[in-house]
Write a structure and sequence with these properties.
alpha+beta; 2 domains; 3-stranded mixed sheet; 3-stranded antiparallel sheet; binds pyridoxal-5'-phosphate
Length: about 230
Amino acid sequence: MQAETSTGVLNPIDALAPIAREHGALTIVDAVSSFGGQPLDVGGWAIDACYSCTQKCLGAPSGLSPVVFSSRALERRVKCRSFYFDLQLLDDFWLKRKYHHTMSSTLVYALYEALAIVEEEGLESRWARHERNHHALVTGLAELGLSMLPPHGERLWTLNAVRVPDGIDEAAVRRHLLDEYNIEIGAGLGPLTGKIWRVGLMGASSSPRLVLLLLEALKSALSPARAGPYVRA
Ligand SMILES: Cc1ncc(COP(=O)(O)O)c(C=O)c1O
């Protein structure tokens, strides 16, 4: 997984995938929370299979999953028992126009438009924007006394995992953000429940305006005058 949505950690696929290749192993990379927001070089990093989604950093509706395979991976194909995931049938569908399933044409048009927007912005400029807004958020959070879960250098730009300060009712803070500011941030999952907030800055939501709004909203939720309801008894 390149981008761990549950912890906000960026895994160094550029370093890991070539090691797997040296040892004859195939790699499969989940780029669901990174594609379009963080550098990803499927060919240059020797990734064998990579899939993502449309609804995160591309900013299109959900429902499609871009996927790509290396020639090495295709050579090692085995007989597929699933009709829907049979690559040969999907290849024939795309390349030879042989019927396989009926796609949602509206989703394809939406993805086409989202990719045109990415192209207009430029992929590298888009990555740089995600990086800039991530750093702006981290700096603003530090001014509020808040810190990030992953160490410096291992943080995603797209999914920001923020430590919940001791004694704060994190769910009440999220409710305040939603009710008062129309901002939804994620809760911690599994062992991180109650310990982190997860802030997505993906696609159009990676903007200075939204970073500033969130910082202001958090400041108001955590200010001593307002914090009453959010401090655990
Ligand atoms: C890293 C990662 N992989 C996979 C998924 C599942 O994606 P979907 O909800 O599009 O099935 C998610 C969802 O957030 C994710 O963050």
